[in-house]
User: Fold Membrane protein from Promicromonospora citrea.
Amino acid sequence: MIATGLVLAGLAALVHVYIFFLESVAWTAPRTRAVFGTSEQEAQTTRPLAFNQGFYNLFLAVVTAVGIVLLASGSTDGPASAGAALVLAGTGSMAAAATVLVLSDRTKARAAATQGTLPLLAVIALLAGLL
Assistant:
């Protein structure tokens, strides 16, 4: 189950790198505006907020990726236990953020499912494998 959890965590990290790209690099592009349902004016106005939020997503992906490398490097002792903690912190935070998103705005349920399903499954699989 640990291997399954690491694959799911890796996929979740990739999704969050993509979200980083959308929010911090391509926020005002027409395709990105269509994804987020924003007008050109809204995108220009919210650009600094989206830029910052994108980096939160990138940092969660990086924490998760470092954890994957550490956990995959050995047993669940030493650096690998730190790896498990990092993967669980990264994916747990991703899942929690998705929960906050849907609780704050029910119309964002699809976005929350997109950003939260893989991390939630990763947490479940990792905990099942570690316990």
